[in-house]
Fold this protein.
Amino acid sequence: MFCPTCGTEVNDNAVVCVNCGCKLKNDEPKKSDEIVYILLGVFLGAFGAHNFYIGKNSRAVVQLLLTLLSFGILLFFVQIWAIVEVCMNAKKING
Ligand SMILES: [Zn+2]
């Protein structure tokens, strides 16, 4: 593989580039992931969509069940909860 920063060919298992010293393994979510996460949280947060998206399935199921089992009565509150989560996690995703 090639270093995305300087273009030097580096070992596939290398963690940092030998030429420029930049970190190679990009395990942070991409910017587009963050936007999808925020949109899911804002529009479908009451159904746990944003948590399903980042793999927090247990929390997502809790939100989904709260909304569905209350026949939408708790939807507003779960939605507020979701937006608070999105605000907190979006900062983390941004670094
Ligand atoms: Zn490099």
Observations:
- The longest helix spans residues 75-94.
- The CA atoms of residues 1 and 19 lie 13 Å apart.
- The radius of gyration is 18 Å.
